[in-house]
Amino acid sequence: MFVGITNTPRNYAWGSTTAIADLLGRKPSGQPEAELWLGAHAGSPAVIADPQQVNGATNLAEWIAAAPDVALGAALAGGSSAGAEGAAPLAGGAGATAASPRLPFLLKILAADHPLSLQAHPTPERALAGFALENASDVPVDAGNRNYRDPFHKPELIFALSDTFEALSGFRDVSEVRRLIDELRALDVATEDPQASALDALENRLTGPDAVRDTVDWLLRDGRGGDSGEVKWLVERVVALAEYSVFLAEGGAVISFARELETVRSLAAEYPGDPGIVIALLVNRVSLKRGEALYLPAGNIHAYLSGLGVEVMAASDNVLRGGLTPKHIDIDELLAVLDFTPVAPPYLVPTEESAGVSVFRPDVPDFQLVHIVAEATVDAAVPVMRQFTLTGPGIAVCTAGGFLVAGAGASVKLKRGESVYVTPDEGTLTFAGTGEVFLATTGV
User: Fold this and answer.
1) Collapsing DSSP states into helix, strand and coil, what is residue 410?
2) Which is the catalytic residue, given 102, 205, 237, 321?
């Protein structure tokens, strides 16, 4: 069964006013449009275009709850779960329990004109335990100081649709951070009023076996109400040096970490005085080109800075924030969730299944993302055909052109800006046409 779905973009302040509308051929709303959710998560379940097709259900969550065997297939409808050992293919949202049939992934179109918060997501075990603990402590699920709004993990994948997609992801090696500090020291010496002690305070923390953890702890605690004021001074000095680097660069100086210092300037403009400005220097600065993807597993510190992309994630709302936000930050829980192991930017390389069919498969069974492209042939009378076999239910969104999508029992026409939910019994899907489609389905 193919069920047409749609939704209204969420108007978070960091969103673009035009990018999602331009991509999908829609009229802009005039408000920021940050995320278009295509899934069954309770926060914004996709709207069903024709409720009569699914016995009157008006949104995807409602239909799945009423007919899980049809909508999800037998495996997911039975409440099967990877539990504490892996992904949890279970229901998302405030009332979720570990036994509820659920769609395990959420597909989004994301458009950032301003930086999102520094954040990380928990493991399945941590999410389950944290959700139970906060429930037992009678913390309302919608409370601003709530860490866990459901008992599920939230690994995620972002595929760049814009020419570049800018992000922070994963902690750098301490040796590289020290090289960055060396450049800041050189800038400091070149100023009329050198203040080396501000940088000393940072470098002196970067020692010992837990150097990065201890430094992040200090930056957050002191920078968010501590008594010493060291972090406040450090943030101010780093921002001043980042601004001074522009003057020196215009005079011909070579700035080795120019991109990082540009990021400092942009973050300071959005979140003046926030300790996350300095934490960002401990994190890899990443620029994705169109068609490249990052995979962000549990514990990975990250922040999207700007760009348009397709995002697919486990269906959860669990976010531990670590700066660049006015929202609640639980420092102790964040430190428990973060993975401080230095890593290279976590690019995810696709598998080329066949011509025009690329599959991004992370190491979790919740989801995979299929990128389907088809260009017109010389003989326009010969349709271009692409195929992919579902591993569970799927959601497809067309971002260019148009296709006739056929499965084992039904077919649907899908054109730019349209989305469809596909039940798993459709099996192998054939896409006939030209353009671009993204298909999210369960992992393998």
Assistant:
1) coil
2) 321
Name the burial class of residue 175, with classes exposed (0-12), middle (13-18) and buried (19+) by CB atoms within 10 angstroms of its CB.
Answer: exposed
Residues 6+ apart with CB under 8 A from 350: 293, 358, 359, 360, 361, 371
* Residue 349 CB neighbour total at 10 angstroms: 11
Give domain 8-49+79-168+287-337's CATH superfamily.
Jelly Rolls (2.60.120.10)
Element (H, E) at 335: helix 331-337
Quick check: is 321 catalytic?
yes
Segment 105-109 mean pLDDT:
98
Question: 64 — alpha (psi -120 to 50), left (phi > 0) or beta?
Answer: alpha
Q: What is the dihedral angle through the alpha carbons of 9, 419, 439, 126, rounded to the nearest 10 degrees?
A: 40
Q: Do the beta carbons of residue 397 and residue 437 sit within 8 Å?
A: yes
User: Read out DSSP for 151-203?
Assistant: S----EEEEE-SSEEEEEEEEPPHHHHHHHHHHHHHHHHTSSS--HHHHHHHH
Q: Model confidence over 183-224: pLDDT tens digits?
A: 999 999 999 999 999 999 999 999 999 999 999 999 999 887
Q: Sketch the domain layout of the chain as residue ranges.
A: 8-49+79-168+287-337, 172-282
How do residues 63-90 score in pLDDT, each as one tens digit?
Answer: 999 999 999 999 999 843 333 333 333 3
- Residue 99 is predicted with a pLDDT of 60
Please give the distance of CA 378 from its chain centroid, rounded to a whole number.
38
pLDDT for res 316: 96
Nearest-angstrom CA–CA distance, 125 and 248: 49
Mean of per-residue pLDDT scores for the chain: 93
Rounded (10°) CA dihedral 90, 94, 97, 100: -50
Token code pair at residue 426: 């459709």
> Is the distance from CB of 322 to CB of 118 less than 8 angstroms?
yes
Judged by DSSP in three states, 316 sits in coil
How many residues are listed for the chain in this entry?
444
In this structure, what token pair is assigned to residue 236? 């101010």
Among the ranges given (29-38, 139-148, 418-427), the one the predictor scored with the smallest mean pLDDT: 139-148
| Three-class secondary structure of residue 83 per DSSP | helix
Burial 309-333 (b: 16+ CB within 10 A, else e): bbbbbbbbbbbbbbbbbeeebbeeb
Q: What are the backbone dihedrals phi and psi of residue 259, each rounded to the nearest 5 degrees, phi first?
A: -65, -40
